[in-house]
Amino acid sequence: FFFSHLLGRRLLEFLPFMFRLRALLRACPPLPRADEQRLRGLLREIAQTPPGDDVLPARLGKSLMSAYEALQPPGRLGFLSILARQDVDLSTVRRSCQNLLAAEDDCRAAASLRARGALREALEPPSERIIGRLAQQPGGLRFLVAMRADLLSALAQRGPFAEAAPPSPSLSPPAAGSSAATAAAATAAAAAAEAGSVASPLAAEGGEAGEGERGEGLRERWRALDGSLRRLLSTWFDQGLLKLEALSWETSPAGLLGRVMQYERVHPFTGGWPDLQRRLGGGDADGASEGGAAGRYNRMFALTHPRMPGEPLVFVHVALVGEVPSRLAAVLPSAPPLPSVSPPSAPPPSASPPAAAASAAPPPFAPTTAAFYSISSPFSGLRGVPVGGLLIKQAAASLAAAEPSLRTFVTLSPVPGFRTWLTARLARQRASGGGGEDLSGEGAALNGLLQALSAAGLDETAPFSELGPLHGPISTGGVQSPEQERADAVRRSLVGLCARYLCRATQRQRALDPVAGFHMRNGAALIAIHWAANPSSYGLEESASIMVNYHYDMPEVEARHSAYVAKGACL
C-alpha cells in the first residue's frame, strides 16, 4: 500500500511498459499503434505532472532515459518523432486568445493579466515541459545534450536515420580523485593507454493528426523540436552557470584531463600524457619562438557545468609568445630533446657559477601575444549554443590578469572548407570554358590558378596532397629559378583565392567557412593568411597548408560582433 501510495497507480501502470520499451523500439522503429499510444500516454503523464509532484517524473524520467540510451539509432528516431509530435492544444490556444481579447475589450486589467498567463501556458508545447522535467533529473542535462546530437544527425540525413558512428576508443582515464602525475605514472607502468502546471492534454490536432506524417512534415517537427532544445540549452548553459577552468597538470582532476585528451580532435595528443603535460604549461621558456623571440608558454582552459561534472564542454589551447604566429610549429609544443651527455674529458659543471655569468642571464620572458590555436567542443548536441566564444573571451580576461605584458589576442586557425569550395569553383570554371561570370574577380583568380598549375606541371590535387617543394615559403624577393617562380605563382594564387573564400563566400550573409563564421560572429577580425603554416597531412588535405589569424581586439569585439550579425560583414 505504501509503495502504491508513494508512486501512484499511474506509475505502476506504466512500469511494465517501460521494461518492454527497449525491445520494442530496438526491434521495430515504427511502433505498433498500441505501444505508440502507451508511449504517448507516458510522455503526457510527465508533461502534466504538477510542479510539486517530483516522484512520478523522477521515476518515469529515469526509466525513459535508460530506455532511450539502450536503443539503436532507428529506435531513437522513433522516440524523437513521437516527442516532436507532443504539440500544443490548438483549441486551448483559441480559447485563451478569446479570453484575452474579451478581457481587453472590457478593460479588465486583472482578467487581462490572468488571460495572458493562461495563453503563455497554452502556447508551451508538452514536448518542452517534458524536456524541462528531464533536465531536472540526475544526469538529465547530459542526456538532453546527447539526445539533441541524435536529432541533429537525423536532420542532416536526406534518407532514413543512418547508423551512428562508433564511439571513440576510450583512453581509460584514471579516477577523478587522483592527480595527473600519478595517473601518468600508472598509465606508463601498465603500458596502456562527457515549470509550470498545465493540464492541457495531447493535442488532437497537433499530436494525433501527425501520426501518419512522413517526409518533410515530420522533418519540420524535428526542426521545431531542435529549436526548443537549442533555446532551452542556451538558457541552462548561460554564462552565469558555466565555470572557467584553467587546466593544470598539478591541480586539475585527472579524469577531466583524460577527457580533454580523449576529446581533442584538432591536434591529437599523439605523445600521451607527456604531450598533455607540455601543453598545460612551461613550454620552451629557454628556447626560441618564431621571429627570434625567446620563450614560449602554453595554457589550456575549459568551461564546465555543475550539472555535468568532470566534462569539458569546450576547451582551448593557448600559446603565449612574443609575436603573432604564422605557423603551427610556433605554438604547438614539441617533445624536448634528449639530454646531452658530457664527454668524459669535460670537467664537471661548477656548483656555484661565477657572479659575472649569473648577471649575464637573460631577463625572464614576458609574452606579448596570446595565440589560441585549437578550440574543441566535443558535444555536437551543443551546436548553436554560444559556449565557444564565451570561453575565448573569459580565457583572454584571465590571461590578461595573470600576464600583464600581454597586448594582443589572436588565433592561429585552420580553413577547413577551402578545398571543398575551391574544387567546386574550379569545376564550374572548367564547365564554363574558362570564361566565368566575372573575369575581373573570382573568374580571373581561378583562371590564374589553373594557368599557374599548368605552367608548373601540376594538377589541381597537388597542393592538397603530400608535402613537396610547392609547400615551401612564398618568396619575398631575390633571384629565383624558373621552377621557383612557377611554384611561387601557384602559392600566391591559392592564398588569394583563400582570402576570397573567407571574405566573400557566404550563405545567408554568413561566412561559408565554419571557423571563420565562428570567430567573426564572436567579434574577431581576419588579419593574416599564412602559406605553409600547417604541413601535416590533415593541414594539406583541407587547406593546402594554409592557416589564418583572427584578431580579438577586446574593446572592439562587441562592435564587430554587431556588424557581423547585422550585415554579415567580413572584418
From TrEMBL:
Residues 240-553 form the Malonyl-CoA decarboxylase C-terminal domain. This is Malonyl-CoA decarboxylase C-terminal domain-containing protein. One of its GO terms (cellular component) is mitochondrial matrix. Residues 107-158 form the Malonyl-CoA decarboxylase N-terminal domain. Residues 335-361 are annotated as: Disordered. GO terms for molecular function: malonyl-CoA decarboxylase activity. GO terms for biological process: acetyl-CoA biosynthetic process; fatty acid biosynthetic process; malonyl-CoA catabolic process. Residues 335-352 have a biased composition (Pro residues).
